[in-house]
Every structure is written in C-alpha cells, then in structure tokens.
Design brief:
The structure holds 2 protein chains of 2 kinds.
Chain A (H helix, E strand, L loop, with lengths): L7 E3 L4 H10 L4 E4 L5 H6 L7 E4 L9 E3 L5 E4 L4 H6 L1 H6 L1 H8 L4 H6 L2 H7 L6 H7 L3 E6 L2 E6 L4 E3 L2 E2 L6 E7 L6 E9 L7 E12 L3 E10 L6 E2 L1 H7 L6 H14 L6 H23 L1
Parallel strand pairs in A: 1-3, 2-3
Antiparallel strand pairs in A: 4-5, 5-10, 6-7, 6-10, 8-9, 11-12, 12-13, 13-14
Helix pairs in contact in A: 9-10, 10-11
Chain B lengths: L3 E8 L2 E8 L4 H8 L18 E4 L2 E4 L12 E3 L12 H8 L9 H14 L5 H7 L11 H11 L16
Parallel strand pairs in B: 1-5
Antiparallel strand pairs in B: 1-2, 3-4, 3-5
Helix pairs in contact in B: 2-5
Classes of the chains: A alpha+beta, B alpha+beta.
C-alpha cells in the first residue's frame, strides 16, 4: 500500500480564485486536474505538497474550440479521452488523437489532460512532439497577468518547465492548418508496465505544387532532455521534391541531431526509422 | 480549504454521504468507508487496473482518484454490476469461459468491460483488447477473458461448451 501524506485541498470555482490560491500557496501547493502523474509521484514520494489545488471546478478551462482564424484552442481540462473522441480533432488533427491514444491506458486517459502531459514535462511526453510540430502556444496566467509561451520555449529540462510557481496554463492555442498539410506521429514504447515511449517522432508536412516540400516541421520525443524540433532536418527538407529517398536522408539528419541519454545507438536508429515513417505518412495524408 | 471534507455521491445507485480525509483515495473510501471490498488494490499507482471502477460511467483507476474528486458523481463498482440479479451477463460469461483463476484482476476486468459494453454493444476483438489494455492479469493469459467479454457482448452463450477458446483471438 502506498499512503498519500495528508495535504490541504482546494477546489476553486473560477480562474481568479485558482490564480489567487496559486499565488498564496506558490511553492507549497501543486495544481492538478487528472492527477495521473501527480498522485503517483506523491505516492512514490518523488513529489511533496502541502496543498493540492484541484482545477476541475474551473469550467472555463474545459473545451476544444475553433478560433476565428480557423485555429484551435484546447482548454487545460481537456482529457486525452476527449481528444480521442472529438470529431473535429479526428478529422483535422488526427496526429494528436494518435498521440493521446499512445498514452497510458483507458483508465488513465479518462482523467489525464493534454496540458497535464505537457506540464509534467517528461522527455517522453507523447503530446509534446505533435503539438511542437503544429507550432502550439500555451496560454499562461497568473494573478493580474497573462502571457503566451511558444511550446518550443516551454520545456527547459527533464520534468522542468518555464512556469513560475504561481502560474497556471489555461490552454493550448494552435494556428490554422494550411492546405495540403498533414501530420503524423509514430512512436515505439519501452516494454515495461508503464509502456513509456522510447522514441516519438512527429512530422507535419506542407506540400506545394509539383510535390515540393513547402514546409516541414519535425519534433522528436524521448531522444533528448526535452521534446524538441529537429531544425536541421526541417531546413534540409524545405523546397525539395518530396519522396522516400529525401525523407530517409532527412530522418538520418534528425537522428544525428538527437542526444539520447540511454540506449543511444538504438534510439538514434529508431528515430531514423520512425521519422521516415512519419514523414511518409504525413505526405500521403497531405494529398 | 480543508483536510476533511464531506462528500456526497451515488454508489451503485444509492446516495451516500460521508466525511473523509481529503487525501483518502476513492479505492480506500469504497473499501473502508463503504465496506465495498470487491474493488481490489494491486499496484496502488494506476497501472494494473485491479482498482477499476466506473466514475460517471467511465473507467478510472480508483487508487489514483481522491474520494473528494467523486463528490457529486456516480460510481459503479463490481458489487453493483448484477443489480440485484444473481449475476450480470459479464460475470456469467466470465464463469462459463473459465476467465477467472485467482480472481484478483476480475472485478477490475469486469468494470472495464462493463464500461466498454455501455457504449459499444458490438465490440470487435480489437475494441475489447483496447478496452482491457489497462487491466493486467497474471493468471489466465487473457484469452478466456476476451472470449468472455465477446460472449457477453453477444448476449451470453446458449452454447455451454466454454472449454474451447478460438485460436483467432
């Protein structure tokens, strides 16, 4: 049995209340929604908290909506299960659905949130590569202020983000997807009870007339201290004729850029294979 | 702000109210406060699925849900499956298919399967396996469990020869 140590518990009804609590208890409280990372960390004594601030009462944090520009907003309370079931996401952001389904198992996905996956900031966070490749930005609030952080700047180290102790991520913003653009997320798990991702490769490819790569965005997970974009490979692809050979070369460039800490040689090889697959699938879906 | 809170929830169709420490898990609450020991605790960290219950109809790992998070919600445990009858179709199918050995994973398996059948009455084998992906079994090798869920989805088996498990699962 793993007993939780006692803590104070708050369930604010509004964002303002939540921000006030976050400010008052900064450094001593932990925010949570699904709790699938936090409660496990508390049980394993990898984390400690004098108080828990339950965000599930702040209903304004829920929901997947479209922006006027044709992009998306994914609220902080949106669960992985909701991402998998939302028709709009299935149609236009299938890569995110695939990433959500890569995480945990049904009981976890009922509770766990996309934002929670990002804030936990595991180097292998499955929601990160796809969202990085989609140029996601995070809305971050604190008492009396708000800011927007590009996801590319959000992760600063394993399990460390750019967030201040009194800040709350309120949602994810995605720009509209251009025509002839599609993405794909390919991954392979470690073979353990938790099936954590060993390597994850997301690619979003935009194709111009004649089959040339107008733009490629590539993001890799679990091959470095933080999920990140593979810029050299992206530059290599830009403007070239899209075909299997090109993608193979790009994948090799990306693999060489990785800095896996353990099982490095195997992870580089997996990066090469999975990224080539992602690019190829993305190209096919981009039509 | 609290370290003890009163929770009001509906468990297996019955309203109940208790005062609980905020750090008590739903699994502990069900077992200790409500004496519903059908829900088992295995890994206690949300990986094995033994503690699976339905929260507002969806499967959750009750060992990583706080009791206070169930305030205002409905919970269904294995004790509530049969609903007064002898056995639920799922339970009957598990028995007929030999899907129970030590029985420890069984309540969690049943609840995960019940969650599936509540929203998908014609699951494919892949649907069944996906729905049970969060439930580990050390005894049976899973084939008979999948067979049992398949059988229950079909409305139970008229054919009583549960011994043969199809090779194509």
């Amino acid at each position: 049995m793993r007993r939780l140590r006692p803590f104070e518990y708050f369930k604010p009804d509004t964002l303002d209340e939540a921000l006030e609590l976050a400010r008052e208890w900064a450094g001593r409280a932990r925010l949570f929604a699904g709790g699938t990372d936090l409660l496990v960390a508390l049980k394993r004594r990898r984390s400690a908290a004098d108080a828990l601030i339950d965000l599930k009462g702040v209903r304004s944090l829920d929901g997947v909506t479209r922006t006027d520009a044709g992009g998306w907003r994914i609220g902080a309370l949106v669960t992985l299960d909701a991402v998998a079931r939302t028709a709009d996401i299935r149609m236009s952001l299938a890569m995110l659905r695939a990433a959500a389904l890569a995480i945990g198992h049904p009981q976890v996905r009922t509770r766990a949130t996309v934002v929670g996956n990002l804030c936990n900031a595991s180097p292998s966070a499955d929601m990160a590569p796809g969202l990085l490749a989609l140029d996601a930005r995070l809305r971050v609030a604190r008492c009396g202020a708000a800011r927007t952080v590009p996801l590319t700047e959000f992760f600063v180290g394993p399990f460390k983000t750019i967030l201040e102790p009194d800040e709350i991520v309120t949602g994810i913003e995605l720009p509209p997807i251009a025509a002839h653009t599609a993405g794909h997320y390919a991954w392979t798990p470690k073979i353990t009870a938790v099936d954590e991702t060993l390597v994850g490769a997301a690619a979003v490819v935009s194709i111009a007339d004649g089959g040339y790569v107008r733009e490629a965005r590539i993001a890799l997970g679990s091959v470095g201290p933080v999920p990140s974009r593979a810029r050299k490979a992206e530059e290599f692809l830009s403007g070239r004729r899209a075909d299997r050979r090109l993608f193979r070369e790009a994948a090799a460039i990306a693999a060489a850029e990785t800095q896996p800490r353990r099982r490095a040689e195997y992870r580089r090889e997996l990066t090469r294979v999975l990224l080539e697959r992602s690019l190829t699938e993305a190209l096919e879906a981009a039509g | 702000m609290a370290t003890m809170l009163s929770v009001h929830l509906v468990v297996n169709g019955e309203a109940c109210a208790r005062v609980v420490p905020v750090h008590r898990t739903l699994a502990d609450f069900l077992r200790r406060d409500l004496a519903l020991t059908g829900t088992k605790v295995g890994c206690d960290t949300g990986d094995c699925g033994a503690c699976t219950v339905l929260l507002d109809g969806k499967p959750v790992a009750s060992c990583i849900v706080l009791a206070v998070e169930a305030d205002g919600r409905t919970v269904q445990t294995v004790e509530g499956l049969a609903g007064g009858a002898d056995l639920h179709l799922l339970q009957q199918a598990f028995v007929e298919c030999g899907a129970i050995q030590c029985g420890y994973c069984t309540p969690g398996m049943l609840m995960a399967a019940a969650g599936l059948l509540n929203e998908n009455t014609t699951p494919t084998d892949l649907d069944i396996r996906d729905a049970l992906a969060g439930n580990l079994c050390r005894c049976t090798g899973y084939l008979r469990i999948v067979e049992a869920v398949r059988r229950a989805a079909r409305g139970g088996g008229a054919d009583r020869s549960a011994a043969v498990v199809r090779e194509d699962t």
